[in-house]
Amino acid sequence: MEARFADLCKSRLSLDESVSRAAIALFRETKHLLLANMSVIGSGTPEEIERFWSAFVLYSVKRLREGKEKQESEENVFSLCQILRVTKLSVVDFFKEMPQFCLKAGHVLSRIYGANWEKRLETKELQANFVHLIHLSKYYKSAYMEFFIPTSFNDVKQISGSRSSGYVSDYHRFGWLLFLALRVHAFSRFKDLVTCTNGLVSILAILIIHIPVGFRNFNICTSQLLAKKSNRGVDILESLCLKYDTSKEELRVTMEKANKLIIDILKKKPFPASECKTESLENINTEGLTYFEDLMEDKSLLSSLIMLEKDYDDAVHNKVELDERVFVNEGDSLLGTGSLSGGAINLSSSKRKLEMITSPVKTITSPRSPLCSPMSPANSSFTGNSKFAPTPVSTAMTTAKWLRNVISPLPSNPSGELGRFFSSCDKDVTNEITRRASIILGAIFPNSYLGERSGTSVMDNLWAEQRKMEALKLYYRVLEAICRAESQPSNGNNLNLLLTNERFHRCMLACSAELVLATHKTVTMMFPAVLERTGITAYDLSKVIEGFVRHEESLPKELRRHLNNLEERLLESMAWEKGSSMYNSLIIAKPALAAEINRIGLLADPIPSLDAIAMNHDVPAAGLFPLPAIKHEISPDKNSGTSSPKRLCTEYRNVLVERNFFTSPIKDRVSSLKSRSAFQSAFASPTRPNPAGGGETCAEAGMNVFTSKILKLAAVRVRNLAERLHLSQQVVERVYFLVQQILSLQTTLFFNRHIDQIILCSLYGVAKISQLNLTFKEIISSYRRQPHCKPQVFRSVFIAWPLTHRSGRTGKEHVDIITFYNEIFIPSVRPLLVDLDSGASTSNHNRLEDNKIADGQCPGTPRACPFPSLPDVSPKKVSAGHNIYVSPLRSSKKDILLSPSSKSYYACIGESTHAYQSPSKDLKAINNHLNSGRKVCGKLNFEGLVSDSLVAGSLCPQNSSSIPSSSFTRLNLALKYEQPDA
Q1: Partners of 230 in beta bridges
Q2: Quick check: 197 pLDDT over 80?
Q3: ∠ CA 701-704-709, rounded to 5°
Q4: N or C, fewer C-beta in 10 Å, the chain?
């Protein structure tokens, strides 16, 4: 293997001696890891695994050596594209398997290249950029095909049938290459999805006024594609803005930059379009447009393509990992054969066709993400016709329109009403709050990056300032709504503790910034980057998410879904990671766990000071926002009445918690908590008595809420997985009860692990005692079909071996889930499984409440209860005169359909719209009803809350209060060392 790898470096990639030596050394040091993990990479064939590992090593060396040797020879530079071509791998497969290499070889990379190797590798950013380019190329192709015939003069001579599959015309290619020039020269750092889409629309405008009329698919005078018309002709920019949800100002600026590139790169002479007489400009309002006389002429088009290609080569010079020119040709084998759906790449191989590589930005498909309703504002595609399903690009543009129209017009200073809240504290906190906002948002949206390879541009700095101001305005808007709600007489009218709480404000700023970043789909600042830059942890952020959504009524569905997905990520694993502030609260709520928390080193570091953040992220004092000059005695400004919603959002209910944000599971405290402040309890000192009373600390109250959310998430996932495995209700209840007991009595099993790891092991343990013919391989196979599946969950489980462990192994390592099950899980939960098998689980419902500190139970853990009644997306009535209801189709039903996975499926329930009418006519009548009248009346509000798999109703009847006893005998619970389906 070493000899083949050395030949790959020297003969096929032509690397110089120093790079080859470094690559061979890394391959040699990780070869034992390759041999030990043959079954978890790729298809499992030795030849393919070796090619994967070679690609991983070469990419790591290429990325991690950059900057180490400042003067590298030109032949020393190579890209990921070159690596993948010589190893015969696709980009899709590379991104799918690379996380395994990082997990297994991380300690080697850390020793050779330093502790920050993962950040320098930038794999997640590169993957997000790849997904964006896939979406953008499809978006551009669809728009181009709508406006133009896919052929040019030379193509007519060369091919017959211009619409042949896979064919791209010279005009189409010209537009994509000009777009890439924009990305390279104008969007050097912030290549977010919204900015790039604006660039593509500006390119489309240039094509419309330059491509000869004979190649148009539309009539300029009658087409609805360009709907903005006046007596001066068609307004191209206004029409495109209407069609693609872009801003005319941004589109004009981007178009000017594209025109400048045509002048600089193609050496074309610009003319005011109003002075030019040409057929392509007839019936067009030419005011403000620029025209290039021979830009699309047959004789110059080929030379223009060559010049754009050369400019791209010279500009990037192998500095980019992916040659972005390949995206204009979908048939390129380098891209892979996967299809795209909802921001994810569905692998098409027989073994992995149901797995996904998901963009790390907020296009993640959640098991609780609602399907788009037919009348949703986000359900308008690039064509502007609601009958088409939304694309990731069109959804991003719709969300950006909300930010532009609702948030951007707001004042950048606190309103008069908010200022009075600030001044009503023990001391005026206005200056303190505005200074903090300046520093935190300056760290999240820096004007320049120290050591940035590509440098910065004026547009970069302008982009950062615009996003910074949007986040600031959103922060003030939601903060004012929270202050108004918290100042109600029932909450005591005292906001001093809340408004002076450093962690609360940082969480609010992080949430605001994250929504702005998620709106623009920013590649360079993906979650959880905002956590590191604000100095907070995932557990901190989880305290404000639902409250943030409640107090911002206008938040688009896509952003609500994004926050819902974030909360799920925080609960499933991030809040349990090392350094989470959750452990600082848990150690107070449950002192018996202090020894284990300290042994593993899980406690969070103190929150960094604002000065430290400003210094670490190069936030200059001169760059801070000017402090507002607010006179609090004046009357509220004219915006104060509309800067925040006057009532709480009643539509949003998070699946992970009941409607009252801080409802305690202890019944005798429910009524008192309802009248108390949620935020003030959440952000008070952990040792402080809970304002809601009950004799508990704020740490215990916080853990009450946290564990109730964990159990609700576990219930959703247990039910979805059991549904795929066709398990009985009794088994579902047993698995859920076991997870509940583990969280209560064996909390340490969750430490630094993923909740799905506990669920999978619990499911297998219950299957064993229930004498089910169910293997771990079958469980893993079904789990892989879940939308939230991550292969790392069953491939890499954290273990900190106890000193007294029988195996004699020491230290910390990551093992497969079977090893974790046998060595750690079963020894810990065997008594619980035995009790469950013997029928003692019914009496344990009461026993759990009494075994608090002595048995290691967290006082904040809810008492044992049967499988909960989960909130469902109820079917919506869609006809006033008929009993017709529509709901998202269950995933188990959708799996068996052969239609493309990118479509949304709905189940229609009820009577026919007319007697003796066919189903197709019924569906047409339903669609007509939904598409008629005001949208707000016809909208099917499936927002958020649960997945399509929960539509048919709760698994557990309301009156089911116990788990049936079992007469099964005790079984050997150990698992044979079978490998899960990798």
Answers
A1: 233
A2: yes
A3: 135
A4: N
Determine the Cα–Cα distance for residues 176 and 304; give it in Å rounded to an integer. Answer: 12
Instruction: Count the neighbouring beta carbons within 10 Å of the beta carbon of residue 763.
Output: 27
Cα(654)–Cα(674) distance, integer angstroms: 17
Tell me the pLDDT tens digit for each residue of 249-267.
989 999 999 999 999 999 9
Share of the chain above pLDDT 90, in %: 35
User: Of 723, 804, 720, 711, whose CA–CA distance to 758 is shortest?
Assistant: 711
The strand pairing partners of 265, in sequence order, are none
How far apart, in whole angstroms, are the C-alpha atoms of residue 293 and residue 210? 8
DSSP label at residue 82: H
Distance between CA 476 and CA 418 in Å, rounded? Answer: 8
> What's the farthest any 2 CA atoms get from each other in the chain?
92
Q: HSE, CB side, 13 Å, CA atoms: give it for residue 364.
A: 25
Helix segments in 385-537, DSSP class H:
392-402, 416-423, 430-444, 458-486, 496-499, 502-520, 529-534
Please, which residues have CB within 8 angstroms of residue 9's CB and are 6 or more apart in sequence? 15, 19, 20, 23, 24, 58
What DSSP string runs through 268-309? PPEEEGGG---GGGTTB--TT-EEETTTT-HHHHHHHHHHHH
Kindly report the pTM of this predicted structure. 0.77
List the structure tokens of 312.
């791209």
Tell me the pLDDT tens digit for each residue of 333-372. Answer: 677 654 333 333 333 332 333 233 333 333 333 333 333 3
- The kind and range of the H/E element at 59 are helix 46-65
End-to-end CA distance of the chain: 23
Both structure tokens of 282 = 């007839």
Give the separation between CA 938 and CA 821, rounded to whole angstroms.
50
**Calculated CA dihedral for residues 437, 439, 440, 446, nearest 10 degrees:** 120
